[in-house]
Amino acid sequence: MPVSEPNQIYQEIVDALIAMHRLTDGYTPGHEDRTAELCVKIAERLGLPRERIDVLHMAAQVHDIGKARISLELLNKPGRITDEEYAVLKTHVQIGYDVLKHISFPFNLAEIVWCHHEYLDGSGYPRGVTAEAIPLESRILTVSDIVESISADRPYRKSLGMQVALDEIRRLRGTRLDPVVVDACLEVIDLKLWHEGAA
């Protein structure tokens, strides 16, 4: 997605981070690309200005950059994982934030990434913050991440299907997930503005 001229240098930084991640992980950057495209469609549906959509798109493209620090053996492990392994997986959010905060973005890209596993009711991670502390862009990213993750093939399992993904965001609507964002996502899918493997 072309970005506005003032953001071009920041997009190039993001592209460099993605290129580095692709050297070691053949799956995650593709997941990020597809999630980013769904984020854009939801944000457009909500009427966000182009500048905010640019930032959301870039944040979504690197939202799992912290997984570069986690072994592929664990990332791709089939079946159930232990509590200890889940604790390791969850560190990717903090790692991603710690990397991105060193780049002098003139906007809250690192903060968006930091909050993409936070929930309105405070049950998310890594900080357990609640609605007021979660940027709208992060709320969009969270919904998009869930939909893409469930509806796409993963290294450790086949796709569970779009219907399962949509049922899940409906289930979490208003408790963990922003209802306005969920509704916009449902409209995007219903209008076929995005589908699995769209990126």
SSE layout:
Elements (H helix, E strand, L loop, with lengths): L7 H15 L5 H19 L3 H12 L10 H4 L7 H18 L8 H6 L21 H16 L10 H11 L6 H12 L9
Helix pairs in contact: 2-3, 2-7, 2-9, 7-8
Characteristics:
199 residues; mainly alpha; Hypothetical protein af1432; 9 helices; globular; HD_GYP_dom; HD domain-containing protein
Largest sheet data: none
CATH architect. name:
Orthogonal Bundle
Secondary structure: number of strands? 0
Q: Helix proportion of residues, in percent?
A: 55-70%
State the separation between the terminal residues, measured CA to CA. 10 Å
Briefly note the structural class of the backbone: mainly alpha
Number of helices: 9
Query: Quick one: CATH superfamily?
Result: Hypothetical protein af1432
Number of domains: 1
Mean pLDDT: 93
> Radius of gyration in whole Å, from Cα?
16 Å
User: According to CATH, what is the topology?
Assistant: Hypothetical protein af1432
Secondary-structure element string:
HHHHHHHHH
Strand content: under 5%
Overall, the morphology is globular
CATH class: Mainly Alpha
Extract low-pLDDT stretches.
none
Protein name: HD domain-containing protein
Domain HD-GYP: 6-199
Brief account:
With 199 residues, this protein is an all-alpha fold. It is 57% helix and 0% strand. It has a single domain, classed as Hypothetical protein af1432 (Orthogonal Bundle).
Describe this structure in words.
This protein starts with 7 loop residues before the first helix and ends in a 9-residue tail after the last helix. By secondary structure, it is mainly α. The protein has helices spanning 8-22, 28-46, 50-61, 72-75, 83-100, 109-114, 136-151, 162-172, 179-190.
